[in-house]
Amino acid sequence: MIGNTNREGLFNVRQFNLEPSIVAKYNENPEYYVPTSYNIFNDPSKVKEVADVMRNVYFHGENMTSDEKDEFANFQTDAGYKFSTDRFVKLYAQKSKDPIYYYQFSYDGALNFIKTFLFLKGYKGAAHADDIFYLFKPGFPELVFPSNYAFEVRKRNLRMWANFVKTG
Fold first, then answer.
1. pLDDT in the model for residue 37
2. Is the pLDDT of residue 168 over 90?
3. pTM over 0.85
4. I need a surface site. Which of 57, 76, 77, 131 has the fewest CB within 10 A?
5. CB atoms within 10 A of CB 87
6. H-only helix segments in the chain
7. Beta bridge partners of 87
């Protein structure tokens, strides 16, 4: 089983908030729009082509601005996380006869502690590693009322994983 959260790239928005100069760095260095996992850096024309596509898709063909944090999160989610996961799933499916199960965790609730710790609660979705707290209790107090719906989501998530372990 493999998966992602729906807004993995929110994790990177914290860097965006702490280091506003990142906007200028991306605009001055279009190759920053191309993840290293694409393995195309030996071909500068391909790097430029992919960088242009990324800027068109996520930033409307313009330079990134400091107001485009949601767009930056979407870009980081797709290019930095989902691309690698998708590539792995495809390679695995080609090489193995075993089934592979692919999930996306998107619940945005009181146990999304990564967003809380990174001061990103104002953003929608589940950040990188927010799904962990719907599988395991953290080693710190959960300052959430027991009646909060997030605990029901945790229970269902645990049941889903347990059923997967039992039956595949």
1. 84
2. no
3. yes
4. 57
5. 12
6. 10-18, 22-28, 44-59, 69-75, 83-95, 113-117, 149-167
7. none
